[in-house]
Design goal:
592 residues; alpha+beta; DNA ligase i, domain 1; D-amino Acid Aminotransferase, Chain A, domain 1; OB fold (Dihydrolipoamide Acetyltransferase, E2P); 3 domains; eight-stranded mixed sheet; seven-stranded mixed sheet
Length: 592
């Protein structure tokens, strides 16, 4: 496929507000791509050249890209920058200039050719690399048509943002095969094991659904981590899953550990490669985990060398940094408590019952080592069938500064990406009727007034997730409880994700519109006094036709938060890991 035709599909998507219509457009595009092209096109649609767990930095700031464009279009940088600031979109300005010029070197480049050239630009490094990047991008801009230039240049800047999620691409793959979304659950199951849309689509087109369903874990490809359901009493937990294994709920960084001989990589819940941040964990895994190839999960928490006790999350989080890593590692060493085995020496353990996974995990890690003498440990566990015993274990965990406990079904499998009853959280905040915490997505913000005018932000809108609809629904607008530094951090992070219009995945009442909308990325943990009802928030809201039949009116008011305040930014969570409407409904019922 020529990149020009590919760009025409992108233009259709950009002009479409209907999620279903976007799915159909993508399905039409996918039908026209051969398997190899699909892999490249899938990454480009995400504004990248690799799956999202492989971070590729083009190393091109806005100023560098403008230099390349100015050279390609033979215009002055100041003139282009002035026009760009007025229009607000660098791609649109390129399209305008190229339409007014006659190009003698324009070529009919294919998707593959553009993809390969962008890959070369991203990979070049060393002395003189900046000049090479500028020169190569300028040549590429020259060789594409005006519409292609519009979308091409957004990719190195990371601002393609077409407004659909990975799940929409899976829906479109299903639509390509069947004309509906019926294959989405099967494709999503494969995606949770191997979150690489390019690879999944390539296999689907090349070998069919049967081969997609055979997808297995692969070392150095993170598996989307399983999530737990939540209950607020020992009696409820035992009633739900019976006799179970109970583990402490540590309050640290959840990590997925991949080891192949002496190479170790660490991944966060959001699929970020965090290997460089935690050299002490990497060293410990190399020395202490007895396996050639293994995928483990565990929680890393800070350890106080002086007192021999574990540190609260507020101190552990200081280890999440890009600079001064070695010094901080000496000041706050981490201890890794492993609790899951997903893959070992060629064997997939995802579908193996929990008791068998745990038994095999015992053989990989020493269980009698003193805390001060090692880095990697087994999370402690105990078989429990008595609800009162489970309650006592919960109280003991809280007394020792832990979040709470996790109960695991003995015959339960590991369910990548799913929130199921094989794991149940009984966490400190959930034991209170009015102190539940929620993980919410920041959807947008309003400009500040008074003191906050300096921050550029005065209140921000948050929402929760509905997996069935693949949408985010508003639940609170928060304007208090943040420190000055947190307001500034939110403003800086939000500006990087700023988009012109409200993302398609957001369902927000007009009364809750924001001055600035941002694409789904920032997850925050919110504490509130109570979950209430409000007609202006859309989480759990139901509409009905008015008596006149010409409009919709509120039938059931949505959920809202009373006195919401920020606890912390959850960089370790993806937007789809935000609290679900289903969970919210349970929390609302339990507080009453």
């Amino acid at each position: 496929m020529k990149f020009k035709e590919f760009s025409e599909f992108i233009q259709k998507i950009e002009k479409t507000s209907s999620r279903l219509e976007i799915t159909r457009i993508l399905a039409d595009l996918f039908k026209k791509l051969d398997p190899a092209e699909f892999q490249q096109a899938a990454y480009l649609l995400q504004g990248a050249i690799k799956p999202r767990y492989l971070t590729i930095n083009f190393g091109m700031a806005e100023r560098m890209v403008i230099r390349a464009i100015a050279a390609a279009l033979n215009v002055k940088q100041d003139e282009f920058t002035k026009r760009f600031k007025k229009v607000g979109d660098i791609g649109t300005v390129i399209e305008e200039y190229k339409k007014s010029q006659i190009s003698l070197i324009e070529k009919k480049l294919s998707v593959k050719q553009v993809f390969d050239r962008l890959t070369e630009i991203a990979k070049v490094s060393g002395e003189g690399s900046q000049d090479k990047k500028i020169q190569w991008l300028a040549t590429l801009v020259n060789e594409v048509d005006s519409l292609s230039g519009r979308y091409l240049v957004r990719i190195p800047l990371g601002v393609l943002r077409l407004g659909f999620s990975d799940m929409t691409i899976l829906d479109a793959l299903s639509w390509m095969m069947t004309g509906d979304k019926s294959l989405r659950p099967k494709l999503q199951k494969a995606y949770h094991v191997r979150p690489d849309l390019g690879y999944i689509g390539k296999i689907l087109k090349e070998k069919g659904l049967k081969e997609v369903l055979k997808i297995q874990p692969v070392i150095f490809t993170p598996i989307i981590m399983m999530r737990a359901e939540r209950l607020s009493s020992g009696e409820e937990i035992i009633k739900q899953i019976g006799e179970c294994m109970v583990e402490p709920k540590y309050d640290g960084f959840r990590l997925q550990i991949h080891k192949k001989r002496q190479e170790v990589r660490l991944y966060t819940r959001s699929l970020e490669d965090a290997t460089f941040m935690y050299p002490d964990i990497v060293s410990g895994v190399r020395k202490e985990v007895k396996a050639k190839e293994v995928i483990l999960e565990g929680e890393a928490i800070g350890y106080d060398i002086q007192t021999g006790s574990f540190l609260p999350f507020q101190e552990t989080v200081q280890r999440k940094r890009k600079y001064g890593i070695d010094e901080k590692a000496k000041e706050i060493p981490l201890k890794l408590f492993t609790f899951e085995l997903l893959y070992l020496n060629g064997k997939n353990y995802i579908d193996v019952p929990f008791t068998d996974r745990r038994k095999k995990l015992y053989s990989l890690i020493k269980s009698d080592t003193k805390i001060a003498d090692a880095t990697v440990f087994l999370a402690s566990d105990e078989l429990v069938s008595d609800p009162k015993k489970l309650e006592l274990m919960f109280d003991d965990a809280v007394t020792h500064g832990l979040e709470g406990i996790v109960a695991k079904r003995l015959d339960g499998t590991y369910q990548p990406g799913a929130r199921g009853w094989n794991w149940i959280k009984f966490k400190r905040s959930y034991s209170s009727k009015i102190e539940d915490t929620l993980d919410c997505l920041v959807m947008g913000y309003d400009y500040g007034k008074g003191k906050r005018a300096g921050f550029g932000i005065g209140a921000f809108l948050v929402g929760v997730y509905d997996e069935k609809e693949d949408k985010y629904f508003s639940i609170a607008k928060i304007g208090t409880g943040l420190k000055d530094e947190e307001w500034r951090q939110l403003r800086v992070n939000g500006e990087k994700l700023r988009v012109k219009n409200k993302p398609l995945a957001y369902d927000v009442d007009k009364l809750m519109d924001c001055d600035v909308w941002i694409s789904p990325k920032i997850v925050v943990e919110i504490k509130a006094d109570e979950i209430t009802r409000s007609p202006v928030h859309t989480a759990g809201r139901k509409l009905k036709k008015s008596k006149s039949g010409n409009a919709m009116e509120v039938d059931v008011a949505g959920y809202a938060l009373r006195f919401p305040r920020l606890l912390r930014f959850r960089d370790d969570k993806t937007p789809s890991e935000a609290t679900s409407i289903k969970e919210l409904h349970k929390m609302f019922k339990s507080q009453r």
